Amino acid sequence: MANPTGSSMARAAQCPASHALPQVRTESGEAAQRGHAIHDYLFNVSELGAEAALAKVPEKYRADCERVDLEKLPVIPASYSAEVAFVLDVASGASRVVGQNIGRNYPPLSSTEVALTLDVVALDGEDGVYLLDWKTGRGHIPPAKQNWQLKAGAVAACKAYGRTTAVVGIVKIAEDGSVHYDEAMYDAMEIDAALNDLQRIVARVLEAEVDVKSGRTPNVATGAECRWCPAFAACPAQMALAKELAVSPDKALLPVNRAGELTPYGAKLAYDKVIAAETLVKRAKEALYAYASRYPIELGDGRVLGPYDDRREYIDGEVAHSVLAEKFGPDVAKEATELSTSAAAIERAVRPLAARGKLAALMKEIKAAVKARGGVREKVYQTIREYKP
User: Fold this and answer.
1) Domains located in the chain, CATH noted
2) Strands (E), 228-327
3) Which residues pair with 89 in a beta bridge?
4) Cross-strand pairs, 165
5) Residue pair 317/374 in contact by the 8 Å Cβ criterion
6) Burial class (CB in 10 A: 0-12, 13-18, 19+), 285
7) pLDDT at res. 29
């Protein structure tokens, strides 16, 4: 059994069996690594300031961080703690802090304990806590009031600090850098009700574990959480869907009534199946890409699926500072560069100086000057992709 965590609580609520079936953990993908980079950047912004924080971001994700609209971020209390890890015993209601910045390295848990990490934690007034969670990517994020991760976090923080109310917030950062903030409050009665909900979820997980250990097929439920489920490969519903897709894909994905019509209920089932089918294809693709990373696959027409060196340029901050200072003076150079810089930072600094329609030409001129002094270098990132050797 895998104990539910704060981040997996929504999946446990949808399908308790997902924590009782055999688990397969995969390494973090590109989206997760990008999310971690933005997460670290936002933490460093509050500690170091925007420019210094950006300098600490890996070059690969610096442009993503630059796009974040920092002015739209909520005001975080000055005396806050970041990446606080809790362990909540839902049976007794006892909660404790077990560390900061520990990742997934939680201590051993009893069957009724839930581990979770909160991005931002601060005490609020005499009896409250303030909690914040950063979210990136395209996926749908439930509102703060219905968010299981924050609901569990509110209970854990209140019980650990002896508080009775919680203000919880979600900061969703879209791929274009826009920021969307949603906030909710839990009073004392709602905290108690949330604890009761968590108790029921964990109890259902334990019941599913008994079924699995006894050789019985547990009840499973499909839905949006399936795409991230580590029990996906062992799920009876997914195995049945894979067989349906192999035999009759149209009927498998579009269940219709006897009149051949798609009903509202059938449409809901169809959507869940399409999401699950996409996940099946995604998992298969990941396996093929892993194989191709070691043994390139001949695809025909001269195409190959295999390792490919993706080259990206980056700009040396000191050289760029020297070029900009000579051309536009020290103020522009300081605005565009610090310990490091990027094309986007330089463009922001020189945009007011460029004549209408001449910004691209000016940027080309600056880049040529920086490159002539050895200030434009190249990094190679290996990816798996289709290409013609």
Assistant:
1) 9-213 (3.90.320), 235-291 (no CATH), 310-387 (no CATH)
2) 297-300, 303-315
3) 113
4) 128
5) no
6) exposed
7) 64
Contact 283, 233 (CB under 8 A): yes
CA 349 → CA 51, 333, 366, distances in Å? 13, 8, 12
Q: Is the torsion defined by CA of 346, 348, 353, 354 positive or negative? A: positive
What are the counts of helices (DSSP H) followed by strands (DSSP E) for the chain?
13, 9
Reduce the DSSP state of residue 373 to 3 states and report it.
Answer: coil
Q: Nearest-CA neighbor of 226 among 270, 274, 279?
A: 279
Q: pLDDT per residue over 24-42, tens digit each?
A: 766 556 777 888 888 888 8
Distance CA 121, CA 73 (A): 16
User: Minimal CA–CA distance to 90: which of 203, 199, 201, 200?
Assistant: 199
Backbone torsions φ then ψ of 109, nearest 5 degrees? -115, 150
Q: Specify the DSSP element, H or E, that contains 121.
A: strand 113-124
Is residue 262 within 8 Å of residue 178, measured between CB atoms? Answer: no
Q: For position 318, what pLDDT does the model report?
A: 77
Mean of all residue pLDDT scores within the chain: 85
Condensed to tens digits (0 to 9), the pLDDT of residues 306-346 reads 888 776 666 777 787 788 888 888 887 777 665 456 677 78
Query: What count of other Cβ atoms lies within 10 Å of the Cβ of residue 59?
Result: 15
